[in-house]
Amino acid sequence: MMEKTLVRILLSCVLVLILPCEIIANDGYLGVSVGGLTFQHTDDIAMKDEDLYLSLDTVRVRYVFENVSSSDVTAAIGFPMPDLVVIPDYDDLNRHTFFGDEATDPFFFRTWVNGEEISTRATTVTARILTPLFPSESNEKQELVDVTSRIQDFGFPLSLDSYVVGRRMEALSEEELEQLVALDLVRLSSMSIPGSDPPRPTPYPNWFLTFQFSWEQEFPAGRETVIEHQYRPMTGGSKLWVNEPTKSEFCIDDESQAEINRIMEERSGLHMESVPYILETANSWAGPIGRFRLTIDRGRPDVFAFACLDIPVVEVGATTIRAEAEAFVPTQRLEVLFIVPH
Hints:
The chain is mainly β and 342 residues long. 13% of the residues lie in helices and 38% in strands.
C-alpha cells in the first residue's frame, strides 16, 4: 500500500494580538474595538515556538511567547476559527444537529496558560457571505462581507443549531423570503420544504459563521509565556472523487492519484474531509515564528493526507508526517485533505 504523502502547508488557527483601531500604550489593555476584532502588529511579543498537531479528530497547538520589551504587557488575544456552513434541518427525524453549548461552541475549545487551564469562550460570532455569490467571470475575485446585522434583522440566531435555523426558515413570509434572496443571503432549492402546503421551495443560508475566541493575557517583561489549545476540528467537504481543481489545491501528484484510482476500483469508494487552519495571523507578532513544527496524523496507514507546503516534510511514524522550519513566516492559510478508503 503506497503511503507517500505530499504536504503543502499553510499555517492556520494561530494566536493573534487584538488591538483597537487606534493603538494604545503597550503596557495598557489592548482591547476590542467597537467595529470588531482588529489584528495589528506588535514588536513587544515574539512567538519563539509553535508546535501544531492536526488530525481528523483533534487539533492541538502549543506556543511559546516571549515579551522582548522592558515592560509588562497586558493584551487581548484572539484565536480565529475557519468559517462554518449553516445547514437548516427540515427533517423531523433529525431535529438537532447540535445540542446546547455545541451549537455555540462546536469546537469544544480549551486553553492552558503555563500549564493551567483557563476559561475561554467565543467572544464574537460573525456571519459572512461570499460576494459576488456567482461570479460572472472565471477570474472575478470574490470577497467575504459581514452580514451579521442583516441576518439578525430577519430573526436568525448566530448559531449552528440546525433545528432553530430550520424553523425560522419555515416561518419566513413570502416578502421576507424575496428580500433574503435579493440580498443573496438565501438561495432556493428546487425541492419543496417537507410538509409545506402549498409547496414552498426549500431555502438555504448562504452565510458562514466565524467563531473568534479571545481573552485577556499578561506577558511579563523579559519572560516566556506558554499557551496551549485543543479543539475538535469541524471538517469540511465530502467527495468520492478527486478532480483536477482538488489535485491542484492540495498538491496531489500523479502517482498518488493513480493509487487513489486503484483503491476506488477495488473498494466501494473514498471519503474525503479537509481540515483548515488559519496560520498567517502569526505575522501579527514580533518577527517570524522562531521554530515551527507541524505534525499531521492520518490515524490509519491506509489514509492519505495532502496539503501544499514550502518546507521539508518527512514521515516519522506509520501514520504521522512532520514538517519543521526555523524563522518561519506563514503566507497563507493551511488546509489538509484527508482521503479515507471505505
